[in-house]
Design brief:
By secondary structure, the chain is mainly β. It has 7 helices and 54 strands.
Amino acid sequence: MAYLRRYGVATTINFDLFEVDGVDFRVDAVHASGDTKIMKDEGAEANTTNGFTDEGQGYSLALTATEMQAARIVIYVVDQTATKVWLDRTIIIETYANASAEHPFIGEGVWDRALTGATHNIATSAGRRLRGIQEFQGYENGSIWIDTVNGTAGTVDYENGTVENPVASLADALTLATSLNMTRFTVINGSTITLTTTTSNKVFFGDRWTLALGGQDVSGSHFEGADVSGIGTGTEFHFENCDIGTVTLSTFHATNCRLSGTITFSAAGSYYLANCHSGIAGTSSPVIDTGVAVANVNLNVRAYSGGIDLRNLGQAGTDNASIEGFGQVILNANCVGGTVAIRGLFELTNNGSGMTIADEPRYDSDTLIDLNWDEVITSGAHNVNNSAAKILRELRENPGYEGGFIYIDTVNGTAGTENYVNGTLDNPVDSIADANTLAAALGISRFKVISGSSITFVASQENQEFWGESWTLALGGQSISGTFIHGADVSGVGTGAVKPKFEHCDVNGVTVPPCTMYLCGFSGDIVLGGAGNYFWYDCHSEVAGVTTPSIDVGAAIGDTNVNLRKYAGGMEFKNLGQLGTDNVSVEGDGNVILNPNCVGGTIAIRGNLTLEDNSATTTVSDDARIDKSQVAAGVLDEATSGHTTVGTVGEVLNNQQRAVTAGAAIAGTLSVTQMTTDLTESTDDHYNGQIIKWTTGALKGQATDVTDYTGSTKLLTFTQVTEAPSAGDEFIIV
């Protein structure tokens, strides 16, 4: 598994170490110079700037911004002591958010652009490529997809080699990769690939697929999940989670691989196998042959499990091997020179001669038990500050920094900055200052704030986490760049280049930089502190009655984008368009007020929201806004003809409408017993016996029965009424 971190930004990695028996955590490892090395983009290894820090059950390693300037970063944590006390391990980091990162991404500004086939159809253009991803899964994970069992032949960009239409051959995949400038391939289970051309600086992902190297140059390439065989040349290629069978290879790296055949080295240089294991059951072992005619080989086998059979060491020069882990090491009779260092729980069978064997750090189970597990930890003998034994004792005697938190209780906490004594669950500190001191010493960036506490930031609190419920936070004009805050009543001014995030907070009287808010309540004025994007989800007003909280985009800020999604309650917007281009999207239920000082910008309103627009020239887009009057008008203006489902209100009204004939009097015979009409019925006596009722005119509300109807003249005869109708008087017949 690889860690994902931002390119060029300092970060902290958390990891664990195992005892040399590979069963339990090693919780008292102490860093020494050279124990942690870094390799960037398959380059030269170097010591890390910082050593790792003991965090209790695990460890942390702080990497600098310079160390994070690479696409792929590998950290080797190696115990160099004469008596090895932990299993070495490898940490893999992939970076993002930079053109040089392993995972670069497109900026947020283009994401709101609608992509259509009519306007974004230029071959190889970014628009067409994104549209292809929009319309189907496409090159998911940035990969050309290969399925040699069920795939199809073809090399059409954005059609072949996609996740739903994988190609059937590596040749087609390479053609597409060249056209699309892609270097990653995902191989479907069961596929079989034989390399027939140079395949350097490529990445192949998959699980349970077969790879024949075919004698090709695979320099800088990465293969994952393959059953590997054949001959590979080049330098610095990498196998991960592979089954490596019988192969001949030049300098390579293998991580988490199973060895099940004979690996023969073909070139001088360094070979690295980390967290690998034997794939051969019983007493037999996979073979590593350093080569009869190959000199100056350096074999690094770290955190290995199982048997390993070394052959031809020292046959043609100086060969060195370091093997760490647990299992069995066999030195074949054809091993005649070089140096072998063995560390860990290994059984050694030495059939060779002329070699230097350094195996003082090699242990059996009895020695490990005697040296470690039988030691009794007491306060009298193990009380050195920051020592491994005292840390273990503290962990045994109190809950410690549970959850990886420094605990703060400004009401009932105590002052102090002693590691593993203060700031713990059972002994929280009473100030943010002490908490920051402990966090810096322990490499911890998370804080748990006890309910009722009040904190004012007096220094930058960047890239940290503050968790709690019902506590008070004054931002104090400090930078909260990249920081997460939960459950606080927030006020004051905060700054920051990287969006902070507020969750389940009560926000009142604040000035904030571009930020994210989730499930927050607004009970006062929120002033935007800088241009950029503000993303607020599932938030609500906490002001009762007709008064509302407000969002002030700032008279001197400009170019803000406010996204208020799934909002509930009232919100007043101020100073839109005062400087630059401001854009607002509001969706939810409640009411929106535009203050008179809004003189520009655009606001889009969607949902069940009323609008009070006091602005001058702010553009309002509210086609998707619905209020009560619109709903009522929509219902009353709906034609009944389309509503025929039996039992519905529409069907009942529709039937009633069909049972009523409407008409009006026209010039002709107009008396108290007869009336010429605009009816269209041409059959005599059609309305005889029905009731006529006037709806307008002097006879409005009167009703009588129809006694005769003449279809040719449209003349109705009826029982006498009080007055003669006039032309234009309307009536219904039922």
